[in-house]
Design brief:
Helix content is about 70%, strand content about 0%. It is mainly α.
């Protein structure tokens, strides 16, 4: 896999800025700390009605599905993202129980990029359980004796 470049770093920082937006922070907090997964039928009846909770869930899942699309299409370096966050895995674990229901009823590829992102991230972790790729490659540090200046 190629090394991440400055464009990857810039895109990753832009994605981080989106996560810091106040409404997004509230939505992420609700999804990660308050939302409890329920079966699809209960999900439809409880959340899919335009409520603030529905908006939070859609905001967070669509954000991570979008990030997944960027990674899965090679726009954003997967390893760089995986080194810096694991939130997509947490989000996928919260929603995977009811996603199949919505896929069957309305949209067969709903949150597929999020699913692939979480799966690939978990696979990546298997190969990097004790060290990061740049540690394994002994990548020299810029501006440090022995590295680039």
């Amino acid at each position: 896999m190629q090394k991440p470049d400055h464009q990857d770093a810039d895109l990753l920082l832009r994605l981080y800025e989106l996560r810091r937006e106040e409404r997004m922070r509230q939505a992420r907090h609700w999804v990660l700390h308050e939302y409890q997964p329920v079966p699809w039928e209960q999900m439809k009846a409880t959340y899919m009605k335009g409520s603030p909770e529905d908006a939070s869930l859609r905001m967070v899942t669509s954000y991570w599905d979008m990030v997944g699309a960027l990674v899965n299409n090679g726009i954003l370096h997967a390893g760089l993202l995986f080194e810096t966050t694991g939130e997509a895995i947490q989000v996928w674990n919260k929603v995977k129980g009811w996603v199949e229901g919505i896929r069957k009823e309305t949209r067969p590829i709903y949150l597929r990029n999020l699913e692939l992102l979480a799966t690939r991230h978990l696979e990546w972790r298997q190969g990097h359980a004790t060290s990061l790729p740049h540690e394994q490659a002994k990548t020299p540090l810029r501006g440090v004796s022995g590295g680039d200046s």
